[in-house]
Amino acid sequence: MRKIDLRGKHALVLGVANQRSLAWAIGDALGEAGCKLAFTYQGERLQKNVNKLAQKYPGSPVMACDVTSEEQVDGVFARVEKDFKKLDILVHSIAFARQEDLKGDYRDTTLEGWRTALEISAFSLVHLTNRAVELMPREGGSILALTYLASQKVVPNYNVMGSAKAALEHAVRQLAAELGPEKIRVNAISAGPVPTLSARGISGFTGMASHHAKAAPLGRNVSPQEVGDAGLFLCSPMASGITGEILFVDAGYNIMGV
Ligand code: NAD
Description:
Blueprint: E1 10-14, H1 22-32, E2 36-41, H2 44-54, E3 62-64, H3 70-84, E4 89-92, H4 111-133, E5 141-147, H5 159-179, E6 184-191, H6 205-215, H7 224-235, E7 246-249
Parallel strand pairs: 1-2, 1-4, 2-3, 4-5, 5-6, 6-7
Bound molecules: nicotinamide-adenine-dinucleotide (NAD).
Nicotinamide-adenine-dinucleotide is lined by residues 15-17, 21-23, 42, 46, 65-68, 93-96, 120, 146-148, 191, 193-194, 196-199.
């Protein structure tokens, strides 16, 4: 029987806030497959949570990283290089928009709100990829980001984050094309609604999640573990022929018209 075995591989996982985070579901799936892990947290408030979760994989570096701080990004890659010598997998599970930009009219988005959302949620993938490839071995590597259907369809209140996800998905394709010759694959999972810390910041999230569950072919929402398993697949050699792909893990919701 074939099984995913990632012993000898090293992954950097950005975006764990707590045990509900999709980054944790993906990191945990990679860890259970034998991959060595490094985690980051944004802000001291989350440090304790991430330290506690990382204990499941003893020896995993846990580092501060706000993607808007070049100093912290430098610190992360210096530590990964020192501890791991190489990096096989980068998981980007980061998004942020100001609370006032996740409700009301899209046309009220300010330049500052737009810059914040697109810098943290989309540009960071480009920048972190550029840093990560320096540590990726000759056999190549895998980069994974997290996106949502609002990149393509209008979702009330998602507003500027839809623009950020559209930019992120474009970046996935652009990076995949550029890094293909180096055997580095770049993909994204478009997850259905999961009640995480960030998701709860979107006005009307609970109603949206129950609409998804009713309309999805599977008649339910997805679990973080299902997103984690899909992430494990995309980062593993089982997906060696897949790059530039946006894989829906949404109980089939995206295929529905009426
Ligand atoms: P989460 O709140 O657990 O994770 C979001 C993470 O982004 C947090 O760890 C937060 O610290 C981090 N972050 C925010 N600003 C940052 C910054 N400046 N620097 C570094 N990190 C920063 O929520 P989640 O739902 O697990 O979100 C992870 C990813 O999944 C996001 O890209 C999100 O858009 C995407 N996604 C989530 C859902 C959902 O319904 N939960 C659906 C589709 C896609």
